[in-house]
Automatic annotation (TrEMBL):
<protein>
    <submittedName>
        <fullName>LysE family translocator</fullName>
    </submittedName>
</protein>
<dbReference type="InterPro" id="IPR001123">
    <property type="entry name" value="LeuE-type"/>
</dbReference>
<dbReference type="Pfam" id="PF01810">
    <property type="entry name" value="LysE"/>
</dbReference>
<keyword id="KW-1003">Cell membrane</keyword>
<keyword id="KW-0812">Transmembrane</keyword>
<keyword id="KW-0472">Membrane</keyword>
<feature type="transmembrane region" description="Helical">
    <location>
        <begin position="6"/>
        <end position="25"/>
    </location>
</feature>
<feature type="transmembrane region" description="Helical">
    <location>
        <begin position="146"/>
        <end position="171"/>
    </location>
</feature>
<feature type="transmembrane region" description="Helical">
    <location>
        <begin position="37"/>
        <end position="60"/>
    </location>
</feature>
<keyword id="KW-1133">Transmembrane helix</keyword>
<comment type="similarity">
    <text>Belongs to the Rht family.</text>
</comment>
<feature type="transmembrane region" description="Helical">
    <location>
        <begin position="113"/>
        <end position="134"/>
    </location>
</feature>
<feature type="transmembrane region" description="Helical">
    <location>
        <begin position="66"/>
        <end position="84"/>
    </location>
</feature>
């Protein structure tokens, strides 16, 4: 596993996306342990894309316009749904139900999982990303890709946990101010809506 892969993967993971927005929002509103559950769910949502890429199914997805479009619009709709629910919440942000009631760690993780699994661009990304770091002389390219996929997931989980736990540290200050909560809610909703619209209008 090359140093170039490790550096590139870390840079990709550090760039904020929908998973980071969700994990940070959970950390701000529901604390450290729930943010770890969110990070775990988002990380687990990467697994199908990695496996599809490794097994060659992503090539079919890349060529199948109908499959890609269906997944793309489903993912965009889910992100827009999260944006609406965030705006509707009147208490601490609950991105799944729009209510202030506490959520279980399982539900938190499930939402994170759905955010990533419904993004077909992840599969196309891994199709283009992982093979670049496979040597033509590698006798076991499948195992190498699985190893790199595992490292990428480990990096994702670690970085998301740091994001979420940092958000949890400042969460009490944010939650004590209704004005800050309102702006935070609007910002998170705008981020989800932006990601959703970007996914909806994106081309293959």
């Amino acid at each position: 596993m090359s140093l170039e892969f490790l550096i590139t993967a870390l840079v990709v993971v550090l760039v904020p996306g929908t998973g980071v927005v969700y994990t940070v929002a959970v950390g701000l509103s529901r604390g450290r342990w729930q943010s770890i559950a969110a990070a775990f769910g988002c990380t687990l949502g990467i697994l199908p894309a990695i496996l599809a890429s490794v097994l060659g199914l992503s090539a079919l997805l890349h060529m199948g316009a109908l499959v890609f479009q269906v997944l793309k619009y489903a993912g965009a709709a889910y992100l827009l749904y999260l944006a609406v629910q965030t705006l509707r919440a009147s208490g601490p942000m609950d991105l799944a139900s729009g209510q202030a009631a506490p959520k279980s760690a399982l539900r938190t993780a499930t939402t994170g999982f759905l955010i990533n699994i419904l993004n077909p661009k992840l599969t196309v990304f891994f199709l283009a990303f992982l093979p670049q770091f496979i040597s033509p002389s590698d006798p076991h390219p499948v195992f190498s890709m699985l190893g790199m996929g595992g490292v990428f997931m480990a990096m994702t989980f670690a970085v998301f946990v740091v994001y979420g736990c940092f958000a949890a540290l400042v969460g009490d200050r944010v939650l004590s101010s209704e004005r800050a909560m309102t702006w935070m809610r609007r910002s998170v909703a705008a981020a989800f809506a932006g990601f959703g619209l970007k996914l909806a209008v994106s081309s293959r």
